[in-house]
Amino acid sequence: MFNRKLPPVSYAIGIWEPQRYFWLFIMFLHCPPRIFFLILYRRAFRNVAPKSAVYRQIIYFYMKTMWLEMFGLIAVSVLDIKCSFVMHAAAYSMWIISFNFNMLFNTILHHYGGMRDTSLKYDVIWRIKLAMFISGAILSISTAVSYPVFLAYCFQEGQKTCVS
């Protein structure tokens, strides 16, 4: 047996009704600003955009990954494991893959758009986003290993902890 001080992350979007409704309420508050930032980022990157066709293509794909990330997050929140594990896993994959490409494109656009050169503040923001991309990529890739390890070694103990 193991003793845990914090509840598992799955409580937030798990099958337990109070936490699930609270998480969906947070999603309801979270999505409109994401749409606003999507429009804001598109305008900001287009205004500073070099005349490169590649840069414009990256803006295009960046917008697609931002939409996919939001829809993936909504899907992983609504389609719980109890509903369908395969659909939940597909939604999680869509969310985590689009998150990583979203952060990759964001750092590329900030760097090559020239925003970093305009102010020290933008350079600091770029460095924070780069750190978020690197840590997010490492953590998301680790889920491909950590979930099977959890199933192999910790699943029974985890169920005992959560059920009792």
TrEMBL record:
PANTHER family linked to this entry: FGF RECEPTOR ACTIVATING PROTEIN 1, POST-GPI ATTACHMENT TO PROTEINS FACTOR 2-LIKE
Key words, A-Z: Membrane, Transmembrane, Transmembrane helix
Name by which UniProt lists this protein: CWH43-like N-terminal domain-containing protein
Superkingdom, natural source: Eukaryota
Pfam families linked: Frag1 (PF10277)
GO annotation (BP), single: GPI anchor biosynthetic process
GO cellular component, one term: Golgi membrane
Ranges annotated as spanning the membrane: 20-41, 61-79, 85-109, 130-153
Location of the CWH43-like N-terminal domain: 5-153
